Amino acid sequence: MNKTPFITVIVPIYNGEKYLSETVQSVIDQTYDNWELILINDGSTDKTASIINDFVALDRRIKKITIPESSGGPAYPRNLGLDLAKGEYVAFLDADDLWATQKLALQIDFLTYAKADMVHCGGIIINALGEKIGNVESFKKHRFFKFFLGNSVALMMNNPIILSSSLISKSEIFKFREDKDLEAVEDWFLWIESYLSGKKIRMLNKNLMSYRSHDESISKMLDEVQFLRSFKIYTVLLLEKKIGLWRFWIICSLQLLNLCRLRVQGKFQGN
């Protein structure tokens, strides 16, 4: 493996003027510098285009793609970026999240050591002002489910991977599903599909990214709906014969119990 492989960073943006400059700057500030950044303007109506143009003029490694009208979700722009990616590896970054300066450098080293197809990392949660308000806890839930149910079922019960934390070998990646019913869980579907196909996924246990929680984020707006869409994932996997009927019923039953528990505990937005 090349010690400094070329990395493509893909950022889809829809009306991202509030946080986009910070996000792009966190890529520019990486200690690892062998990358290209593809900024995909998905029909934005705010100042996103102007911000993108400023960065393209500033750094030759930054490229832009403009989609005239919004595609309705991030899956299509991400796939468009994948089609144009020149990197041996691909990293995804949401337009409101941030990376620590050593994120790419540490992940490339870890991929080499672990001989993995994909690596993800831990992160902190920040608010609209960039202030830390917590830590990403999803992987702790995964470990709990994994202990009792095994890795594959655990991955289907709970998404332990923040998209902006991932770095993936381009030769091993699938495309994101563009089904509207999978919006906000298309990344989770991708991780499950990758794992079931035999891809080696590893976690670097360091907080190297900041996940921004704010009122306009898709994942925050959907919340319980996002959780319910896990059943769509299971159905597609069953129909495509990637899981059997027995596993389908087990996972659906466990997830229904989990859903009831979370509702009773008032864990969803609006409760």
Structure description:
Helix 5 crosses helix 6. Strands 1, 2, 3, 4, 5, 6, 7, 8 and 9 form a nine-stranded mixed sheet that branches. It contains eleven helices and nine strands. The protein has a single domain (7-214), classed as Spore Coat Polysaccharide Biosynthesis Protein SpsA, Chain A (Alpha-Beta Complex), CATH 3.90.550. The longest helix has 20 residues, at 245-264. The relative contact order is 0.14. Residues 218-222 have low confidence and may be disordered. By secondary structure, it is α/β, with parallel strands linked by helices.
Structural key phrases:
271 residues, alpha/beta, Spore Coat Polysaccharide Biosynthesis Protein SpsA, Chain A, 11 helices
CATH topology name, in short, is Spore Coat Polysaccharide Biosynthesis Protein SpsA, Chain A
- Number-wise, the strands total 9
Biggest pleated-sheet summary = 9 strands, mixed
What is the mean pLDDT?
91
Tell me the series of helices and strands, N- to C-terminal. EHEHEHEEHEEHHEHEHHHH
In the CATH classification, which architecture applies? Alpha-Beta Complex
Spans of at least 5 consecutive residues whose pLDDT stays below 50 are 218-222
Measured distance between first and last alpha carbons: 50 Å
Range of helix content: 40-55%
Form type: globular
What's the helix and strand layout?
Layout: E1 7-13, H1 20-28, E2 35-42, H2 48-58, E3 62-67, H3 75-84, E4 89-92, E5 98-99, H4 103-114, E6 118-126, E7 132-135, H5 138-149, H6 151-157, E8 167-169, H7 186-196, E9 201-212, H8 218-222, H9 224-228, H10 230-239, H11 245-264
Parallel strand pairs: 1-2, 1-4, 2-3, 6-9
Antiparallel strand pairs: 4-8, 5-9, 6-7, 6-8
Helix pairs in contact: 5-6, 10-11
